[in-house]
Amino acid sequence: MRGACSQPNCRPSRRLRGRRRTTRNVARGRSNPCESGSVATFLIVSSSRKLSKRHHIVPRFHLRRWANRAGRIGTVVGDAAVTPPPAITDVAVKSGIYNRTRPTGERIDDIERVTLGSIETKAGSLMRSLRRRWPLTGQEKLDLAMHIGFQMVRGPRWFAWERDFNQSRITDFVDAPIPSGRSLEQHAEILEGVSAEIMSDNSRLISMTSIGAKCARLVGSMTWTLVEFERASPLVLSDHPVTIWDRRSRSTTPRPIDLGAMGLRNLLELRVPIAPSLALIATWEDRGDRATPLRGSPDLARALNAAAVAQAEHQWFYRLPRPPAIDLGDPFPPAGERLLGRPLPDPDDQIVPPRVFADIEELVERGEVGPKQLVEIYFVDPDQPVKPRDRAGS
Length: 394
Description:
This protein has 15 helices and 13 strands. The protein is an alpha+beta fold. The protein folds into three domains: 1-49, no CATH class; 50-156 and 209-348, no CATH class; 350-394, no CATH class. The strands form four sheets. The chain has a five-stranded mixed sheet. Strands 3-2-13-8 form a four-stranded antiparallel sheet, covered by helices on one side.
């Protein structure tokens, strides 16, 4: 059977027999009860569909939390509200941003429909029922952390930073001395090939998936707090919905922060508006996730909204009929400090768990590796999650 799983005795579920094998059904796991066969099915289905030209940089399930029953969402571009309010299908959209080219020259959009689509399928149901599900199980936290991690690097701001960074790498190659034994013509040809590969859509999207997974491990290892707000203090959403806080600044006026320029090691706090009345805040508190949501004040809502609007690249969104007042002029501390009433713990103050610590205990005893170096090793190791120190008893 075309697109069937390679596992023995594995057939499409009864619900799908006689129905069209669409990508949506595959993404929802309806075509095959064996998860290990889903990738092969994705690739076969994706190659037969028309190329998608418009991609949402914020998933529609997230935008829908701010839309009214008619599917319209309050949208602000610059300082002006868009009238009439657009549908969620027409906002937070970029043309061809997740398309790439196969070696055959064929343009495909498997990154959006397969990679991001599978992540969004799990995260969408979680976000819609987050308040009821809270606190999350380990698997639920992992699924939502994967979405948040990829959301940090799937927007135009990240791609712009990466483009500039890669351009600087190319400049370094050009300025480097020509290796001995290589002619000028050969060197120019090699540079052209390297430059084309580094700046290609394939390289950009491979980097997104790799770094997005690292961000997910980082976010999933932080302490999560769910915060509820009154209807009189609604939250807004932007086209870059994850806002981050640089640990090197304890109080600042709202401004856009580039994750690439800041670096993951400097992440002090992360905020995600889940709905107009709900936000997720992640910090390095030395404890487990709070089992009960906290009540957010109007001042905290204003601070989160200011950060969200400052982080927007082109649009920010609100629930109709009118947007809340946004103040971008006043400096404010991290949201976690407002909730806790004390300074947030610094990532450099965290120690890796005893299991990992024991593996390099001898190096520590000899003074070759210190606590800060342990954190740095743990942050950049792609095979290990990032965790604060042991939370036993929390």
